[in-house]
Known about the structure:
The complex is a heterotrimer.
Chain A lengths: L1 H10 L6 E12 L2 E7 L11 E7 L5 E7 L9 E5 L7 H7 L5 E8 L13 E6 L3 H13 L6 E7 L8 H6 L4 E7 L10 E2 L4 H7 L8 E6 L1 H13 L7 E5 L7
Parallel strand pairs in A: 7-8, 7-11, 8-9, 9-10, 11-12
Antiparallel strand pairs in A: 1-2, 1-6, 2-5, 3-4, 3-6
Chain B lengths: L5 E2 L20 E6 L2 E7 H6 L3 E8 L4 E12 H5 L8 E6 L4 E5 L9 E6 L2 E2 L9 E3 L12 E7 L6 H4 L18
Parallel strand pairs in B: 1-5, 2-11
Antiparallel strand pairs in B: 2-3, 4-5, 5-8, 6-7, 6-11, 8-9, 8-10
Chain C lengths: L3 E2 L4 H8 L7 E4 L5 E3 L4 E3 L5 E4 L6 E8 L2 E5 L3 E3 L4
Antiparallel strand pairs in C: 1-4, 2-3, 2-8, 4-5, 5-6, 6-7
Amino acid sequence: MEGTAVQRRLSFRPRPWQVATVTGAVGETPSVRTIDLAVPDWPGHRAGQHLDVRLTAEDGYTAERSYSIASAPGDPVAITVERLEDGEVSPYLTEELRIGDQLELRGPVGGYFVWEATDAGPLLLVAGGSGIVPLRAIIRERQRSGGDASIRLLYSSRTLADVIYRDELDAYRDGIAVSYTLTRAQPTGWTGYAGRVDSALLAEVAWPAHKDPLAFVCGPTSFVETVAEGLVELGYQPNRVKTERFGASGGR
Amino acid sequence: MPPGQYVTDGFPVLSAGPTPHTPLDEWTFSIRQGLAELKSWSWAEIRDLPAETVTVDIHCVTRWSKLDTEWRGVSMDTLLGAVEHDEGYILAFCDGGYTTNLPIADVTDGQAWVAYEYDGEPLDPEHGGPARLLVPHLYFWKSAKWVRGVELLDHDEPGFWETYGYHMYGDPWKEQRYSGD
Amino acid sequence: MDTLDGNALAGLLAEVFGEDMTSVVVTCRTCGVSAPIGEAMVYPRLPGAVARCRNCAAMLMVITRIRGVCCVDMLGLDAAPLP
C-alpha cells in the first residue's frame, strides 16, 4: 500500500479551481443528466475520482458540491448529476446548464476510492442510486485496460426508470455480472431482485470472502453503511471494502 | 434582512457532531465560574422557571435566514439573575463539546434565552433539543445547540468556530462573519 | 441529518496539503482506531469542515477556509508518515 502511494503521489498534482465549458448534456433518466466538459488543463483522471463544482451567484454567494467523474480514464471529463428536489446546485446543473456554458471546477480529486487495473482481486461493486456513477467509471476502466478482473455489480434503484446507464450495463458480458434490485416498484415480469440490499441479498450476489475480493460501495450514506457492514459480516476484509457516501440522496 | 442572507422556508440542520441524547433526569444547566459551580438547575427546575414565547428572525453564517421563528424558553436574565456576576463574558458549553463565547451584555436585557420549544413543540434533538441557547441578534452559531451551561469569564474566550477564524462577536447586520470583518 | 465521509474533503485537503490525503491512514487519539481519512465521518454544510472518527465520533480534524487562509486543526489524530 505504501509503495503504490509513492507512485500515486508522483502522478498526482492537484489543480486549483479552473473554468470548464459544457460540451454536451444528455438525459440519462428523468432526473439524471450527464454533462460533458472541456477542461483546459485536465491532467487525466483515475477511475473513481470526483471533481468539485463551484457555483457563484451574482452577489458572491458560492455553493460547492462534489460529483463523481462518470467517464473512463483517458476519455473526456463527464459528470452525471441527479437532480435533488431541495438541492442548491443540482437543479441548476440538470435543468438550466446549456452547452457552451461555463462551470468552475476543481479536480480530479480522490485517491482512496480509486481502482487501478493493477489492483488485485475480483471486484464487487455495490451501487445505490447515483452511486453507480464512479462504479461505471471503474467498469469502463477495466474494459479499457484489457480487463481480466472479474466484476460483480449489484445496483439498487427505486424503479426501472431510475436505473442510470441501463443499456450499457445490460450489454456487459464476459467477466462482468450485473444484478439489479428495485426497491420501490418492479415492472411486470421482472426477473431481477426486489427490495433493499440486505445481508441475504449480499450473501447471494457478492463474491465469497475467500476469493479475497475488493469491494467498492457508493450511494446514500445509510445504504453504504448497511452494505459495508453486511460485507464485513460476510467475511470481507474491512480494508478491502471501500466506501463513498453521497449524503441523504444523490449529490454531496 | 442582514446583508448577504437568503430567506429559507426550511430549517437546515447544521451540526458538527452526532446528536447527543442526554436523558432528561441527568440533564442540568449550570453557571460556572472558575472551578466553582455557582448554580445549577435540573430539567424539572428549568421547566418550573417563568418562561416566554418569542418570535424572532434567525441568521446563519452559511447565509440562510429564517423569519418569524417561534421559540419558548427561559430568559437568560432569569438564569444569570440567580448569580452574582460582573459585566464580563460567557463561554457557553454543550453536550458534544461545542462552545461559543458572548459578552454578558448581549445575553441579558431580553436578548437571549435557553429555549426548549420551537414552533410550539418540544425542541427536536436535531435542532438542539432538549434545550439550546437562543441569541437571535447574532449569527446563529452563537445559539449553541444542546447547551448545558455557561462559564463566567472576565475576558472574551474564543469558542469552537471563533477559534478557527470566525468572528468573536458575530453581528449579522455588520456582516461580522469572520475575524477581522 | 446524513454525514458524509472523507472523500467529500478530498478537494479541500488536496489544496491544503498539496496532494491527495484520502488514502492517508490516521489513528484516532481518543480510541486508537486507525482508518483512511476517506472513511472519516464528515459533517457537511458547516462554517468549516469537521471530520470525526467513525468508531468513536471524536473529532479528528477541523478545517476552515476564510478569505483564502486555511486553518487546519489535526489535534485529534496521529497520521502515518508518507513514505
